[in-house]
């Protein structure tokens, strides 16, 4: 089996002083997956890009766009500084891959994992095990995972090791300032840290071990890189933050793999001291005695659960909602104001049950998205030639929602909006959500366009955006159980 390795590294000295030539930039962009070997494509490899300033400009624009830099297409100082920043050496794009706010590589077949620190960092002796437990707790707090420390001779799932240079695998470390750590995808369970690095604990100087460990554990649990700014799985090390926590994108990624946390699982990581075999005390959260909020008008499943998609039906007199976690497909009759369970395949033949979107453009075409495919319906009929595959590595695989504004289609992926050219099936631009929908300050799970308004959903909350006035309605967000979209 080919091992998949992830190396967290700073860049070589050619990048450290930010004296980056066009040739250096091409090597950098090629190394991290921004130049694709694709026949007939502009992104056809370093040789082609080096022979065309236009291609280099286009590739730099993509790099700048993705990483939130001013989009100039020029190798300016801001771009050089970004390329000089410490980062993980895993490419941002695999061959043939698409950009995604989070990407999952593989997963463990179980959710209760054991771990062991095989040896401690010399500078943080006596603190290493605590730091590793704290790092893993960031992941268990937001997912269905639990972690229990065990002895190293008990065949732990996650094996944490500090070593220098050649340390027992095929990927030797390179001394201070180079590779910081590396980890293997599931179910290898190997997480290695370079003992020659200056790791610190809650200090601004040096490299914070816990933050590096959280990133590496993310890889060991199956997450690839996130291109979302502020995500711990972002390829760039962002330094010590005393208020560090997982980003929204990190949470969505780990929950995609392992689900949401169980309300009754241990609140802390269980540790097994090396000097005793006594079982640790496990604390459980108290059972809430507060009565849940019940609205007499909307005490119904689709109002209270997370919505995967909300869209108008082909007869334009019903609204449909696909609910997450296999809760089904429901329709809401605008006349009788009543819910009823429905079969998705009866309404939109050929549409996968995991589809997102359902937006209606000014021509009355209803657009859906699933994985890297796009579906277009007029009424209930799939248009000829659809579904189509979107072959653009900027496309956010598995978009969460879609919206329509000023004759443009936008795809939501966490806090980013991807502007889609449906004629050419290419991403034209990437925006922050709030720059297109002013006042929208939450992650969007689903959106719905009706009667001059856009409705945005997040779990039980809803925003209402006035298309004519180009602003968010006051008093929002509201609970969908209190005020549905009418």
Short description:
Zn(2+) 2 binds at residues 88, 215, 219, 225, 233. The protein has helices at residues 13-16, 22-31, 46-50, 53-66, 77-84, 128-140, 209-221, 248-258, 301-304, 344-347, 433-436, and strands at residues 5-9, 87-88, 112-117, 146-149, 158-163, 179-184, 190-194, 199-200, 207-208, 307-312, 318-323, 328-333, 338-341, 356-360, 365-370, 373-378, 381-382, 388-389, 401-405, 408-413, 416-421, 426-432, 446-450, 453-458, 461-466, 471-472, 478-479.
Question: Topology of this protein?
Answer:
Elements: E1 5-9, H1 13-16, H2 22-31, H3 46-50, H4 53-66, H5 77-84, E2 87-88, E3 112-117, H6 128-140, E4 146-149, E5 158-163, E6 179-184, E7 190-194, E8 199-200, E9 207-208, H7 209-221, H8 248-258, H9 301-304, E10 307-312, E11 318-323, E12 328-333, E13 338-341, H10 344-347, E14 356-360, E15 365-370, E16 373-378, E17 381-382, E18 388-389, E19 401-405, E20 408-413, E21 416-421, E22 426-432, H11 433-436, E23 446-450, E24 453-458, E25 461-466, E26 471-472, E27 478-479
Parallel strand pairs: 3-4, 3-5, 5-7, 8-9
Antiparallel strand pairs: 1-2, 1-6, 6-7, 10-11, 11-12, 12-13, 14-15, 15-16, 16-17, 16-18, 19-20, 20-21, 21-22, 23-24, 24-25, 25-26, 25-27
Helix pairs in contact: 6-7
GO molecular function: metalloendopeptidase activity; zinc ion binding
Family: Belongs to the peptidase M10A family.
InterPro entries: Hemopexin-like_dom_sf, Hemopexin-like_repeat, M10A_MMP, MetalloPept_cat_dom_sf, Pept_M10_metallopeptidase, Pept_M10A, Peptidase_Metallo, Peptidoglycan-bd-like
